[in-house]
Amino acid sequence: MSQSPSLNTWSDALSGFHLGWFPLGLVIVAAIPLVFIALYALTYGVYGERKISAFMQDRLGPMEVGKWGILQTLADILKLLQKEDIVPTAADKFLFVIGPLVMFVGSFLAFAVLPFGPAFIGADLNVGLFYAIGIVALEVVGILASGWGSNNKWALYGAVRSVAQIVSYEIPASMALLCGAMMSGTLSMQQFSVLQSGPYGFAHFYLFNNPIAWLPFIIYFIASLAETNRAPFDIPEAESELVAGFFTEYTGMKFAMFFLAEYGSMFMVSAVISIVFLGGWNSPLPNIGGFALNDLTNGPVWGAFWIIMKGFFFIFVQMWLRWTLPRLRVDQLMYLCWKVLTPFAFVAFVLTAIWEIYK
Amino acid sequence: MQELGKAELNSTRIIRQDDNRVVIEKDLDTEYMVLSMGPQHPSTHGVLRLECITDGEVVVEAEPYLGYLHRCFEKYCEKVDYPGIVPYTDRMDYLAGMNTELAFCLGVEKLLDIEIPRRVEFIRVIVSELNRIASHLVAIGTYGIDLGAFTPFLFCFRDREHILNLLEWISGARMLYNYIWIGGLSFDVPADFKKRVAEFVTYFKPKTRELQQLLTENEIFVKRTRGVGMMPAEVAINYAWSGPMLRGSGVKWDLRRNDPYSIYPELDFDVPVPDGKLSDIGDSLSRHLVRALEIEESLKIIEQCLDKMPEVEGFNSRSAIPKKIRPKAGEVYARAENPRGEVGFYIVSDGKSTKPLRCKARSSCFVNLAAMKDLSKGQLIPDLVAIIGSIDIVLGEVDR
Q1: Which of A79, A192, B141, B169 could lock onto B153 through a cystine, CB 3.0 to 4.6 A?
Q2: How close, in Å, is residue B251 to chain A by CA atoms?
Q3: Which residues of A touch B150 (CB under 8 A)?
């Protein structure tokens, strides 16, 4: 498959830009995902989730601030900024402060390898997928630090649960992504998308192209819910059991950091699943006869549109599940991971290997 | 191998081995942690405090501590005349005010030995069954929240809102009604009442199915509740459980049938008990199922009452109320089937005063909660939450 000539041109050009000795271009490249997280978490993340849950629950959601309540999140941010930043006296101050930072950095660093369209990627690593899996695991350190540092029994429970959960679910998640890596033969996030492009749109996506891909796809989706602490696997912050889990003691902007980190990693896993199984920034529209829909809807700007839309779709599914399903118990969660998802991930691995050899 | 002794917190054990050597094993077990759950905790349904001794996630023992909402109901009763007590009974079980009022008024009426107009009886049954539905909706909805499902809660509250509107329409209050008075009602129902209750019943019947789909037919919900918090029938009876809790253990006991009052003997309804197909008899799921089924039975009762309720021209709902409520000397125990079980009032009158000499309230949740220590042994913390939710406590009634 031929490489698109425009691959990474925008981000390469930007990162080459220096203002004197200062690498201004690199800063901008790094800032774009950050601004994106902040904007999306504010709009689609918080406001969207409140509205979506409201529609599911037969109510209106925020309606007071601005038209349809669209400024509600801004008002909330203002409120959070004004709040007193409390560090409990008995807390381990260093861990307490560093916890939310580590968590946010962990979720933000993964954005370095997320391609926002064919022409823009923070760093086109040849081990991009591996890096993304690895760096997200850093969140565990932040959760454990904040849960332990809070010196609160509920926070400790949340932290311990969370570590057990995330570390366990990384195994089926990584196995499932490994299946994707076997299908493509690469770990570069850009190459994943390049390999899934073609004139027939969605028909080239691994999910529809490969008869086994649905199995790792489902496994990764379920495991990613657990990795991002979303319902029905939100036991680390199970509000009816553990008050608020590992961030029980946090107030103000430190609390907002957890929020941003959660929404950041929600988008991260959604983007990864769309890159590996659903063609990343490729348009799903096929060329039908004279209507070259696929050619028309591909390109740097369309690419950014598609990857964000695909990510948003999976975030919508995550929200949908959250507002429908009850929460699993701790032991049931572990059962699901070790006795259901992990064996099936291995089965998917073997099946994918066989398919790749004999196809 | 023989264990000779354990040191504090189980962390050291002294063991005599088979070859007669005595070994001291140190730090073998995990340490216990005391975890205070409540009084401000999202799923203790108010201000209940559970002092849990936990071994990791496992609750070794949980002891409920009460009294954070104690308002001296029984002492107040000795200082207030009989009609003045009725509003206080509302504040006991604030989710089922009508039912508690009814129980208290039944007691005083028994003491006064007065005849109640038939229309009043019908209205009383309608409003208390409406209130039972509202109360069960809260129980089912908050149980969903306890298990992490938020949406059923709001669906429940949406439907409950219709009931509260109806009750507000007839009594002027949404929760603390003071509607059922000793010997009558504060007001007759408005002209359109029958029509609007019938409208509600037709609206609500399909909605019960929706709730079943969201909770009872949900795999995760069943996994979380089935077999959790098992209570065999004998133990439940020994704990003097009543209401949906006792019926959840498979005992067909409903005061509306077993000790009938008001017009319940004339009405046709079932007493639902779990059949053991969907749930294990005596677990949290059974108790939830009983509540869900009781909603349908209550709808049945309301429909029959609407049919049979006599229309009286120029009806005065206060006609049977005595001018001065001063019962003859004596004592009475009146009980009624509340949404949470048997609520009873033991009233003693000295025959001279307009105030009771003694009024003892038998609270259903208080008695049901007493089994908490037994139920919680060896459970996980999430299961503990599921068990508290299935008991469906109202702290206003527990503490009185």
Answers
A1: B141
A2: 29
A3: 53, 57, 323
